[in-house]
Write the structure tokens for this entry.
Amino acid sequence: MKKLWGERFKSELHDLAKEFSYSLGVDFELLDAEVRVSIAHATMLGKSGIISHRDSRLLVRGLRQVLATLKKKVVCELIRDYEDIHTLIQVQLEKKIGRVGKKLHTARSRNDLVSTSTRIYVRERIQDLLILVNRLQTALVIQAERNQKVIIPGYTHLQRAQVVLLAHHLLAYVEMLDRDKSRLVDAKLRLNECPLGAAALAGSNLPVDRFYVAKLLGFRKPTANSLDSVSDRDFAIEVLSAIAILFTHLSRLSEDLILWSSQEFAFVKIADEFSTGSSLMPHKKNPDILELIRGKTGEAYGNLMSLLTTMKGLPLAYNRDMQEDKKPLFASCRLAQKALGVLELVIRTIEVEEANCRKASKDSFLFATDVLEYLVKRKVPFREAHQIVGSLVQRALDSHTSLSGLPFEVYQEYSRIFKRDVFECFEPELSVRLKSSAGSTRPDFVLRQVRRRKSQLKAEVRALKRSNRERGLV
């Protein structure tokens, strides 16, 4: 068993304690980031004169060889022999280049090393998530454009409320996902400071150049306080929070599609590629992929709560509890990537059942508010208009008919303001067209939103691609 400490101990760590505490099975995922950090550190050691330029170049060459070797390994072959990813790289480096390898850990600790590596890992996962969210938004916008004339009932309390354009409904999720992206971008901005050089907790007596190494690794600047650098994980908590909120939106979108694909709604069809059947009932077609996104939202929430709970009572500075940050962090990043990827494909392949949407949108009670505003436009006070239309609704229900099925004479009983043109209120197309408030479901407003979003998302893709090319300088 290999480790980076032990000389002051009289006995070996108990086998059960090793099994309980070793973390390579989780933090092997940091391999790429860890080697990048070590290459930057070795380069800085040479530049600062802490080690010779020759030794610095040898360390860098050896680290690249280690990375190439370890990428061919399966982690399960290694987890019993190495305490963590730091130990694995260090031991392998010494095997490659000998005694010079022992100089790599000069002026650093695993404490600042792991914080730096984790920030790089998370920074790159955020970039991946931004691309995936953009793709999901694009899929929603494409469906909105394709179905821009389709009208559906809008719901509050899961009760039919007013008609809206299907495109308007889909664009609501585009807005939510935009805020999800902004949270991830904000988190990336805050975590983009380099802890390397903080060492164990107090900094180093050696002349390390923290600004240089931060620049090499693509960070904005070094962190300002060495204690804070190694002892906090709010950057990870913030990303877990952003992912948890993202999953709230993915879950709600999934729930809408689950409802809409049911026989009770029948507004959309989910593609067979994203549906499953029953082992007993031959006729079943179940929206399992959407249900799993809804179900896995609990995992995203749990990962956030796990790390919040881990961190809540820790004194400064580093504590081994913080080793437990990576499992929920990595899990949520992977989960979000998979959920976004599969949901994008579900959205791209749904078929809208226009006839069923049209039929549902003919329910005349959906236009009660239109009738109310018909009166308001004719100077009837709002509360009075509300009472009149509410009474008409009750009259229709008592008569086992629809709101549009009441004779004109009945409307006149409740208000002489009504003219025969009131029945125009029951046309879905007219209802959405008459909306005038900014951000409403009016067709030309919605079409403008679709066009703006298409342009914005394309520009964003170009910016993300540029950013990917510029990831780090090492």
